[in-house]
Amino acid sequence: MSKARPNSRRNLDIAIERVSVERGDPLRLRTALANAIVGQMLPSGTVKGGGALKLRYGDAATRFTRDLDTARASSIEAYIEELERNLERGWNGFTGRVVPRKPARPKNVPEGYVMQPYSIKLEYNRKPWLTVELEVGHNEIGDADAPEPIMSPDIAGVFVELGFPVPDPIGLMPLHHQIAQKLHGLTEEGSARAHDLVDLQIILANSDIDLILTRKTCARLFAYRNLQEWPPFIRVGEGWEALYDRQAADLNVLPSVGEAAAWANELVSRIDAAKMR
């Protein structure tokens, strides 16, 4: 006989606290679960960024992130309308609503590249539970066209422990697009994305990468955005040391941001050399 899911928001949080005794920080676990729940209701497209890596590799193997970043395969209006319908319909007691937020205005970044931010106000049994910070981007060079349906056994196992069914696989952005976007983000003017050094190490440690395909995608993305040239050089930026240390804590990655940047520059060289094979 299968375990019954919690019958109230309070009992849900108590169950998560109990499970987190062996798995770590309950806030971190709740956030990972909430992102996976919203992922059950996303329209066509892909999940990207740190949230995608968590859904691919599991909670313990990846850094903490509050955001859920996506690339849409439709217009922003159609995407949000479908998301609102799906959230109203819900998933196993979880429902929600979409609240728009004001987009950022990064320096030297064309408006078309700016992510559209929303707060997803999740409820459990119609009681407020948790907010997921969703950022929606457009389809860049086909990064939303071929989602890879994946659900980490680690995260799926937590749902089962709590009495829920195993969530469906969620469409994740292919890794060659993820790598290209992270290398671009690291080398933008004034970048504060030291966490991408952590993510790149996690990707390379856990997946076999097609370097030739990745090189083609990197060259296309850098040309498409037209902000810096491929291949780039990664320099440690102001404040990166503290940012890196915070995101790398308890993960199997290089101990210092300087070592991580040197490793990433070697990765760029390996990717760029793949064009000659």
From TrEMBL:
InterPro entries: AbiEii (IPR014942). This is Nucleotidyl transferase AbiEii/AbiGii toxin family protein. It comes from Gordonibacter urolithinfaciens.
